[in-house]
Amino acid sequence: MPRMVVIPPGMDFSSVVVQEEAPEVDGELATLISSVMRFLTNPHKPMILALSRPDPKKNITTLLKAFGECRPLRELANLTLIMGNRDDIDGMTGGNASVLTTMLKMIDKYDLYGLVAYPKHHRQADVPEIYRLAAKTKGVFINPALVEPFGLTLIEQLMGFPWWLLKMVDQLTSIGH
């Protein structure tokens, strides 16, 4: 019988830098920051950050609906949705395209122009900087997923700012080790 090995999910912590030791903004990071800020009328407001792929299970549209229907929240903060990388929604298939199309329609329905950022591209190496940007605005990370069996984004975002979950599954139990 072939040997089988369980490789639990994990994270490469080599990209994690304590905030006081964070490098100065370089050209690539400046591009990332400008790709987020170009959407926002008032980029100095606190950032509500959600980072996930645009999968229906990630519940991004419910977050967007809640943001769109809560005037005090819209006046207080911006919403930043980092939803993977895409070139053309029409070239995507299945649930991801559906989530992105619904998101665009909701931004229009609730007139959220200038309040919601949804950049098309980011690199994996940018993820710690995205969290630092949210922390710099005194923002919050939210994970609206219906279920989060491992929660890699929960581990990644531990960069010194508050976060909020709808439901929390014990990550250690879900790994089974």
From TrEMBL:
The UniProt record lists the keyword Glycosyltransferase: yes
The keyword Ribosomal protein appears for this protein: no
Catalysis performed (reactions): beta-D-fructose 6-phosphate + UDP-alpha-D-glucose = sucrose 6(F)-phosphate + UDP + H(+)
EC id: 2.4.1.14
EC supergroup of this enzyme: transferase
Domain Glycosyl transferase family span(s) in chain numbering: 42-157
Entry superkingdom: Eukaryota
Pfam family, any one: Glycos_transf_1
Membrane-crossing segments per the record: none
GO MF entry, a single one: sucrose-phosphate synthase activity
SUPFAM superfamilies with a match to the protein in the record: UDP-Glycosyltransferase/glycogen phosphorylase (SSF53756)
Keywords linked to the UniProt accession: Glycosyltransferase, Transferase
Similarity-based family: Belongs to the glycosyltransferase 1 family.
Entry protein name: sucrose-phosphate synthase
Organism: Salix viminalis (Common osier)
Lineage: Eukaryota, Viridiplantae, Streptophyta, Embryophyta, Tracheophyta
